[in-house]
Amino acid sequence: MKRVAILISGGGSNMVRLVETMQAEGYAAPVLVASNDPAAGGLEKARALGVPVAAVDHRPFGKDRAGFEAELLKPILAAEPDVLCLAGFMRVLTPEFVTRFAGRMLNIHPSLLPKYPGLHTHQRAIDAGDSEAGCTVHEVTPVLDDGPILGQGRVPVLPGDNSATLAARVLTVEHRLYPAVLRRYVAGDRDPVLI
Ligand code: GRF
What we know:
Layout: E1 3-8, H1 13-25, E2 29-35, H2 41-48, E3 53-55, H3 65-79, E4 83-86, H4 95-100, E5 105-109, H5 121-127, E6 132-139, E7 149-156, H6 163-185, E8 193-194
Parallel strand pairs: 1-2, 1-4, 2-3, 4-5, 7-8
Antiparallel strand pairs: 5-6, 6-7
Helix pairs in contact: 1-6, 5-6
């Protein structure tokens, strides 16, 4: 069974859905949840789900990304994952780190890539007057929020939406999309999931 490690930075709601579906359906094994923030709320949720956790605070490393990643790699490599899922992970990874996991690292991004890579995606969609928004699961490559698209989920942008109401609507689709993509991905299926 494929072993899946998940990287988080915050509440980990996407991580919870991935872990719960793996545990319920057995399509893969959640072997580690790691965070760059020891106070990330998702770590407690992972512990409650019985998944090993690790945290490496990125702040003491300052701009030394490689130094931070060298520390973060220790629990990740110890868990011997086949697949790495970024789920609300808010640190930019170096090309060296990404290359090490080339072809087996996924990310979920809250926009319909290639539109709106980077931050503040919902506000940008609203400001642009888009009628639709959504989320994308993609393979991670050294170019930020780029890489082969493995799935997308769409939601309407409604009159009166602000970034919080739109983010909440997109998040409910993220929670369906990521497990649907990971289930196929670990089975070697790369056909995009469109919901
Ligand atoms: C989500 O919008 C996700 O798309 C983004 O981080 C946000 C929080 O995710 N990458 P989570 O609740 O920590 O999974």
